[in-house]
């Protein structure tokens, strides 16, 4: 299922332009190298377009946004669209402040995204910025669970229809969906929530995976979600054995991503099609 | 002694708004998650007040300050005061440049802090910004030692009286004091000075511990200091056994914080009341 | 060969002012502590000169430059020159955008560097900013190899003549050269390219090593290059034994630097004089 996806990353070695927050930027860079891609971080308007031009994909993360970097996000996003590059949005904290929500809406209006990845609360904020709200929204309140899974999948497909982007909702259960098809992914470990940046790292990987696999965005994004989840499981098992804590968990997650193969991924992925 | 303090963090899961330097920001975020709190980093004036409003505590660290972030510190600090949130100041490098000293003084003038944490040199600079200097200041020159401990404790209590904040002075011997009472803490290991950010991480933890324990600020700050020191001791023991160096020490410090319990802390804390 | 160099770092404990990118800044700070130096990060124009004044060396890295920090780089660079401090340039991504190239040229024009360290592509961009190009340039295309080593060494010596700086070109084979003499260093491991920041960390170490060894800049820079390469070899050996990945490799590189001694370095260094 993921063999071509994984091979394309190694072969194409995609360069990913990241305009991302300074909290997790080092982990994002290291995870991109770990999965076979290359990172370039550049957040100034003076070079945003030019840097994006030499890349395969653009990863926009609003985690520690400010007026200066928002301009760069818009400039890079438009240029990446012109060049038909893969563009990923990680709307960190959308809904938590008017500035983040407004910036998310402005990005959605001016840039066409290939993938939008966030937790359910961020993705619901994204939905509010995309015209008329749908009935299903209200049913997916705090978390995606087995009880509201059908509604959550319908919501993700609906938002994909509205935005044209693959929608990735991460949590205890992950969903990756385009307007027609959804994958439900049950990899990962709850301890991952004790490590900052697993979401940011995943968005970077989604940009790399999708950038190296044009025309297969949904499958590529799903492979990235499974890779992160499986790495989390393997890493957690190891820290339990070695009696270690959350910082070593973080290191082992990246370690496992650097050692991931298509075979290993296929063996460990827990995916269902909806 | 620390059972309630530790339990409140787990139960209340405080959200801590950090306006902090970009050198150690990832470690601060990870240590907050490790100790049972949650971090949110936001340094732009456009959202500083709003983000602080949804939090329990605010952690201001001037490590890599600039004109843009100083405005956000002031705005967030005032808003946090209005809402009676816990507010911590980490005056990194105060005294090393006029800009840092001036910013420290401006923050002290316009924001009421619950806790101020720094090394002796930074705290002495803080003292200079708080009106008339006291006689004891001159006696605590470079480091807190057994020889000048009484003077240092008196100095900390005096500064607490002037500022209304709990004063935490860290070094080989740590002091946490309000105007009446001081705890002298002898946990930690000299190798911790070979890891950047143990001070920044501690300030983040102090914000979380005090935020979850309103009305017990001194005891909460002391618990945070002990937690960091004991984690350092345990981490150092382990890198010695495993023949490792300073980067693994950093990881193991956070690991130990993520595995800390009230029982473990009480067993390892070396505290004296002054 | 390196005994005095290494001892001077421990004895003089140089304070290194870094104006560096936010991607790898934490690793740079930790590696400076690991090798026996101390870091201070300060990138605002309001304090750049003052902070540099209290330091031994200045490390300018343009990895995530912006208009605000470029001003600080120029101000700090000029002040460091006035005070005859060691000044290192790491022209990250020079050639990748007009902004980075222009900034590199402006820095070269207005600041006198003690050492310039980059990969071959960055150093070739530096050369373009230094007046008339030399014939050898074209021959050193993508990487320094055994085939083009003589040309690369001649190029490095020529650029040192033009800039007055020791030139350090890193890659599979590393070169450190002044106008008269070059060291070719064959330490390191290809897996190091899967870790972000080994170059940035090395530039920080070069600033520390050269700052503590005035008058021996070439030898000090060479010692730093060997230290990083040997640490990479030892770290790689260990992750192979322990079945780990790239994040642990990063940690072990810093671990090995923190455990490096002159004896260990002499035993492992693979150097040739050209």
TrEMBL record, chains A, B, C:
Task: State any single GO MF term.
Answer: hydroxyethylthiazole kinase activity
EC number(s): the record gives 2.7.1.50
GO BP term, pick one: thiamine biosynthetic process
InterPro entries membership: Hyethyz_kinase, Ribokinase-like
Q: Where does substrate bind?
A: 41, 197
Write out the entry's keywords from A to Z: ATP-binding, Kinase, Magnesium, Metal-binding, Nucleotide-binding, Thiamine biosynthesis, Transferase
Which residues does the annotation say bind ATP?
Answer: 117, 170
Q: Which CDD domains match?
A: THZ_kinase
Query: What Pfam families would the database entry show?
Result: HK (PF02110)
Q: What class of enzyme is it?
A: transferase
Which first-to-last residue range defines the signal peptide? Answer: none
Its required cofactor(s), as named, are: Mg(2+)
Give the pathway listed in the UniProt entry for this protein: Cofactor biosynthesis; thiamine diphosphate biosynthesis; 4-methyl-5-(2-phosphoethyl)-thiazole from 5-(2-hydroxyethyl)-4-methylthiazole: step 1/1
Q: Which reaction does it catalyse?
A: 5-(2-hydroxyethyl)-4-methylthiazole + ATP = 4-methyl-5-(2-phosphooxyethyl)-thiazole + ADP + H(+)
Among NCBIfam families, the record links this protein to: PRK09355.1
Function according to Swiss-Prot or TrEMBL: Catalyzes the phosphorylation of the hydroxyl group of 4-methyl-5-beta-hydroxyethylthiazole (THZ).
User: Which protein family is it in?
Assistant: Belongs to the Thz kinase family.
Q: What is this protein called?
A: Hydroxyethylthiazole kinase
């Amino acid at each position: 299922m993921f063999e071509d996806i994984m091979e394309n990353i190694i072969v194409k070695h995609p360069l990913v332009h990241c305009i991302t927050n300074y909290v997790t930027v080092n982990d994002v860079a290291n995870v991109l190298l770990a999965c076979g891609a290359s990172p370039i971080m550049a957040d100034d308007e003076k070079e945003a377009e030019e840097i994006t031009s030499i890349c395969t994909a653009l990863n926009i993360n609003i985690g520690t946004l400010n007026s200066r970097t928002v301009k760069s996000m818009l400039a890079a996003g438009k240029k990446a669209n012109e060049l038909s590059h893969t563009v990923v949005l990680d709307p960190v904290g959308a809904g938590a402040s008017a500035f983040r929500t407004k910036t998310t809406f402005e990005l959605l209006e001016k840039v066409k995204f290939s993938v939008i990845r966030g937790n359910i609360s961020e993705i619901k904020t994204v939905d509010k910025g995309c015209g008329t709200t749908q009935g299903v929204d209200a049913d997916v309140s705090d978390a995606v669970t087995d009880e509201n899974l059908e509604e959550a999948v319908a919501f993700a497909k609906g938002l994909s229809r509205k935005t044209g982007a693959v929608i990735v909702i991460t949590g205890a259960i992950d969903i990756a969906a385009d307007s027609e098809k959804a994958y439900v992914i049950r990899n990962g470990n709850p301890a991952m929530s004790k490590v900052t940046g697993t979401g940011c790292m995943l968005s970077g990987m989604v940009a790399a995976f999708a950038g190296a696999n044009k025309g297969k965005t949904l499958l590529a994004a799903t492979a990235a979600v499974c890779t992160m989840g499986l790495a989390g499981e393997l890493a957690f098992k190891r820290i339990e054995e070695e009696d270690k804590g959350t910082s070593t968990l973080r290191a082992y997650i990246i370690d496992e991503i650097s050692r991931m193969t298509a075979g290993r991924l296929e063996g460990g992925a827990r995916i269902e099609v909806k």
